[in-house]
TrEMBL record:
<keyword id="KW-0808">Transferase</keyword>
<dbReference type="GO" id="GO:0046872">
    <property type="term" value="F:metal ion binding"/>
</dbReference>
<feature type="binding site">
    <location>
        <position position="444"/>
    </location>
    <ligand>
        <name>Ca(2+)</name>
    </ligand>
</feature>
<protein>
    <recommendedName>
        <fullName>protein-glutamine gamma-glutamyltransferase</fullName>
        <ecNumber>2.3.2.13</ecNumber>
    </recommendedName>
</protein>
<feature type="domain" description="Transglutaminase-like">
    <location>
        <begin position="260"/>
        <end position="352"/>
    </location>
</feature>
<feature type="binding site">
    <location>
        <position position="391"/>
    </location>
    <ligand>
        <name>Ca(2+)</name>
    </ligand>
</feature>
<dbReference type="InterPro" id="IPR023608">
    <property type="entry name" value="Transglutaminase_animal"/>
</dbReference>
<dbReference type="InterPro" id="IPR013783">
    <property type="entry name" value="Ig-like_fold"/>
</dbReference>
<feature type="active site">
    <location>
        <position position="326"/>
    </location>
</feature>
<dbReference type="GO" id="GO:0003810">
    <property type="term" value="F:protein-glutamine gamma-glutamyltransferase activity"/>
</dbReference>
<dbReference type="Pfam" id="PF01841">
    <property type="entry name" value="Transglut_core"/>
</dbReference>
<dbReference type="Pfam" id="PF00927">
    <property type="entry name" value="Transglut_C"/>
</dbReference>
<keyword id="KW-0012">Acyltransferase</keyword>
<dbReference type="Pfam" id="PF00868">
    <property type="entry name" value="Transglut_N"/>
</dbReference>
<feature type="binding site">
    <location>
        <position position="389"/>
    </location>
    <ligand>
        <name>Ca(2+)</name>
    </ligand>
</feature>
<feature type="active site">
    <location>
        <position position="349"/>
    </location>
</feature>
<dbReference type="InterPro" id="IPR050779">
    <property type="entry name" value="Transglutaminase"/>
</dbReference>
Length: 687
C-alpha cells in the first residue's frame, strides 16, 4: 500500500446534478440518501483487492446506532445498507459508486478506505440529506413540481393581514446560499436533545418526524438558546422589528456570527420562514401556512374566551386569544407511528406559544388527524385543532363585582381562509378544506364533538359555559362595521356603524365605541379614539352612523402591524348587549421596481426603486433594503434623503446576477412615518 494520503475526486458537478443539490455553493460533496454517487481516488496500489470503506457520522459512531457503516466492494447496490460497486480502475486510481440506505442518518459523514491490513486512510467528508425524489424515503414526494417548489425554491410568499383583507409579502428563504447548510447542521448539534444525549440524538436523525420536532424547538430561543427571540410587545429596542426582515439568511448568519446568541426579534412568520429554510435545506419538503382568525387556546378546552368592559374595551383577561393571523409550517413525510392515512402534510409550529413535553415545540401533527378530530394522536393535535376550530365566547366583565355575562358565542369565527403559496406561481391557494369540513355543516360539528369527547370535555361541568337563560336570549338588534373608502396608512379612516332593529317595536340603544391600535395578535397597544351615541331605532329600521378617524389621530399610535380594532358595545334598553367589532389592517403606500435592460449572468444590471411620499408632511430616516438569492450577495442597504410632501424619490443601484432563471428581488422601504413597505419583482436572468 502506498503510504500517501489518497487524493479524492468527488465529481461534485455530476453528483450534484444527479442528486438535485446543484444549487448549493459548496466545495464539499452534498448528496441525498438512498441514491448512488461516484467518487474516484488514487493512492492504492492494487485497488480492486479487498478494499473496505468506512462511513461514519456523529461523536461516537457505532453500528448499533446506524452511525457507522463498513462495506466492501460488491457486484450490485445493496437495498438495505451501504454499498460500493466498482466502476473502473486504472494503474493508480479507482472509481467507485457508493450508495446509502433510504433510512440513513442525515448529516456530515467522514469517509475512509482500508486496504488489506493497513490502517484506514481518510478520503474526506460529505453531507447526506433527505431525498424526496426517492420512493423509499420517508419524505418521498411523487409530484416533481412539488419537489421543485417545496425543496428547491428559495423564494416564498407569506400571507398576512386579516380575513376580510388578505395581504402578502415576499420572503427569501435562501436555503442554498453561502454557509446556510453548515448553520443548519450546527442547529441540530445545539439542541437540548443533542446536549443531553448526543449519541441517541444523532441516531434518530434518519427520521423527519424526530427532526421536525427538534427543529421546531430550536428555531425559537426559548429553552435552548435557539435561533430567534420572540417579541410581541410592540417595542423592539435592542433588536430588529420583526416586520423589517425580508429573508432567513440574515437571521441565520447573525445567529452564527454572535456565537449562537438568539437573534432579536421574531414573530410567527419569522419563526415559520426560518424553519422553512432549515427543513428545505435538509431536504424535507416544507411550506408556510397562514391561518386567519387563529385561536390560541391555552387551557385545552377548545374554546376561546374574550372579555370586554361596559365601554367596549377589550380586556386582557385569561390566557386565551385570537390572532388576526398566525403562520406555521407543513412538512411532508410518512407517519409510520400512526399508519398510512396519516402521512403527507404534517403541521409544525416553531412559534413559542405553549409548552409540549416541557419545552416550546409543536408538532408534527398530522393534518389528516386534525381534519378528522383525532386529537389523541401525536403530537400536539389538541392545540392545532383549536387553532382552526375553537368556539369563541364573548363576555362582558364587570371588574367591580367580578361578574361576567355572556354577550354571545360563535362557532364559525375561527380558522378562516387558510392560505399557502401556489406551486410554481406567485398566487394564493386556499387549503381550509384540508383542515376541516365545511364550517357550520353537520359533519364539522360532529368532528368538533368527537374532539371534545377525546379530550374528556363532554361530561365535565364547564364553569364558563353559558347557562340555559343566557343561551336562549336572542339579541334585539344586529350590527356591523362597514369600510367606506380606502384603508391606507396616511389617509383618514372612514367607517360606517350599521345598526338594525330586528324587532317590531322601537328600541333605544346606548353605544360605546372605541378604536385601539393593536398588534396582529389583537393585543391592544394604545387607544386612538372613543365616542358614545344614543340612538332610537324604529321597528325593523336600519341606520348607518359614519365614523371618521383622521390620520393625525392614529398616526402616532399605529403599530408597525398597521392594525386597528374598532368596537361598539351596544346596550339595548331592557335587552341583551350586542358587541360589534372589526379588526382593520391598513395598507402601506406602494413602491415601484424597474429593471433597466436585460439581466445577464455575471453582468451588471441597473435597478431603480421609486417611492412617492403620499402625505402632506415630510418623511425622513428613509432606508431601502434589497435582497434576492442569486441576484446579490447578502443585503444591500441604502439611505435616502428626506422627502417633502408629495415628493418622489428614485434610487438606482447595480446588481450582478450569479445564476440564470427567474429570480426574485425583494425590497423593503422604511421611514419615520411608514414602516416596512415591502414589494418584490421577478427578474428573468439570461445567460
Amino acid at each position: 500500500i502506498a503510504a500517501t494520503q489518497p487524493s479524492t475526486n468527488w465529481h461534485l458537478k455530476e453528483n450534484a446534478r444527479e442528486h438535485h443539490t446543484s444549487k448549493f455553493s459548496s466545495e464539499e460533496l452534498i448528496v441525498r440518501r438512498g441514491q448512488t454517487f461516484t467518487i474516484t481516488f488514487n493512492g492504492t496500489e492494487r485497488p480492486e483487492q479487498n478494499l473496505i470503506f468506512i462511513a461514519e457520522t456523529g461523536p461516537k459512531p457505532s453500528k448499533a446506532t446506524k452511525t457507522l457503516a463498513t462495506f466492501d466492494i460488491s457486484s450490485t447496490v445493496s437495498k438495505e445498507g451501504w454499498s460500493a460497486v466498482l466502476q473502473s480502475t486504472s494503474s493508480n486510481s479507482v472509481s467507485i459508486s457508493i450508495s446509502s440506505p433510504h433510512n440513513a442518518v442525515i448529516g456530515r459523514y467522514r469517509l475512509s478506505v482500508q486496504s488489506g491490513s493497513s490502517s484506514p486512510a481518510s478520503l474526506g467528508t460529505f453531507v447526506l440529506l433527505f431525498n424526496p425524489w426517492s420512493s423509499g424515503d420517508d419524505v418521498f414526494m411523487p409530484n416533481k413540481a412539488e419537489c421543485e417548489e417545496y425543496v428547491l425554491e428559495e423564494f416564498g410568499i407569506i400571507f398576512a393581514g386579516n380575513k376580510n383583507h388578505i395581504s402578502s409579502f415576499g420572503w427569501n428563504f435562501g436555503q442554498f446560499q453561502g454557509d446556510i447548510l453548515n448553520i443548519c447542521l450546527s442547529i441540530m448539534d445545539r439542541s437540548l436533545y443533542y446536549r443531553q444525549d448526543p449519541i441517541t440524538d444523532v441516531s434518530h436523525r434518519h427520521d423527519p418526524r424526530y427532526l421536525g420536532r427538534v427543529l421546531s424547538a430550536m428555531v425559537n430561543a426559548n429553552d435552548d438558546q435557539g435561533v430567534v427571540l420572540g417579541n410581541w410587545s410592540g417595542k423592539y429596542e435592542g433588536g430588529k422589528n420583526p416586520s423589517s426582515w425580508t429573508g432567513s439568511g440574515e437571521i441565520l448568519q447573525s445567529w452564527k456570527k454572535s456565537g449562537f446568541k438568539p437573534v432579536k426579534y421574531g414573530q410567527c412568520w419569522v419563526f415559520a420562514a426560518v424553519l422553512t429554510t432549515v427543513l428545505r435545506c435538509l431536504g424535507i419538503p416544507t411550506r408556510t401556512i397562514t391561518n386567519f382568525s387563529s385561536a390560541h387556546d391555552a387551557d385545552r378546552n377548545l374554546r376561546v374566551d374574550e372579555y370586554y368592559d361596559a365601554d367596549g374595551n377589550h380586556l386582557e383577561r385569561g390566557a386565551d386569544s385570537v390572532w388576526n393571523f398566525h403562520v406555521w409550517n407543513e412538512s411532508w413525510f410518512t407517519r409510520k407511528d400512526l399508519g398510512p392515512l396519516y402521512g403527507g402534510w404534517q403541521v409544525l409550529d416553531a412559534t413559542p406559544q405553549e409548552e409540549s413535553g416541557g419545552i416550546y415545540q409543536c408538532g408534527p401533527a398530522s393534518r389528516y388527524a386534525i381534519k378528522e378530530g383525532e386529537v389523541d394522536l401525536d403530537y400536539d393535535c389538541p392545540f392545532v385543532f383549536a387553532e382552526v376550530n375553537a368556539d369563541c365566547m364573548y363576555w362582558n366583565y364587570d371588574s367591580a363585582t367580578g361578574k361576567k355575562t355572556l354577550i354571545f358565542s360563535k362557532s364559525t369565527e375561527i380558522g378562516d381562509s387558510i392560505s399557502t403559496k401556489a406551486v410554481g406561481r406567485d398566487d394564493r391557494v386556499d387549503v381550509t378544506r384540508d383542515y376541516k369540513y365545511e364550517e357550520g355543516s353537520a359533519k364539522e360539528r360532529d368532528i368538533f364533538k368527537k374532539a371534545r369527547k377525546k379530550l374528556g370535555l363532554e361530561d365535565k361541568f364547564d364553569p364558563t359555559a353559558p347557562t340555559q337563560e343566557e343561551v336562549e336570549q336572542k339579541p334585539d338588534i344586529a350590527g356591523k362595521f362597514k369600510v367606506a373608502g380606502s384603508l391606507e396608512v396616511g389617509k383618514d379612516l372612514n367607517l360606517l356603524l350599521v345598526l338594525e332593529n330586528l324587532q317590531s317595536d322601537a328600541k333605544t340603544v346606548n353605544v360605546n365605541m372605541t378604536a385601539w391600535s393593536t398588534l396582529y395578535t389583537r393585543r391592544r397597544v394604545s387607544e386612538i379614539w372613543k365616542d358614545s351615541i344614543s340612538v332610537t331605532l324604529a321597528p325593523k329600521e336600519e341606520k348607518q352612523f359614519p365614523i371618521m378617524i383622521k390620520y393625525p389621530e392614529y398616526q402616532q399610535q399605529l403599530t408597525t402591524d398597521k392594525t386597528i380594532q374598532v368596537t361598539a358595545l351596544c346596550h339595548v334598553e331592557d335587552g341583551i348587549q350586542v358587541l360589534v367589532q372589526r379588526n382593520i389592517t391598513l395598507d402601506n403606500p406602494g413602491i415601484d421596481i424597474r429593471v433597466h435592460g436585460e439581466a445577464k449572468v455575471n453582468k451588471e444590471v441597473v435597478v431603480e426603486v421609486a417611492f412617492t411620499n403620499p402625505i402632506d408632511t415630510e418623511v425622513k430616516d428613509c432606508v431601502l433594503q434589497v435582497e434576492g438569492s442569486d441576484l446579490l450577495q447578502g443585503i444591500l442597504e441604502l439611505r435616502i434623503p428626506p422627502l417633502k410632501a408629495s415628493e418622489k424619490s428614485s434610487t438606482k443601484f447595480k446588481l450582478i446576477p450569479s445564476e440564470a432563471g427567474p429570480k426574485h428581488l425583494l425590497v423593503n422601504f422604511s421611514c419615520d412615518k411608514f414602516a416596512d413597505i415591502k414589494t418584490f419583482k421577478v427578474v428573468n436572468v439570461i445567460n
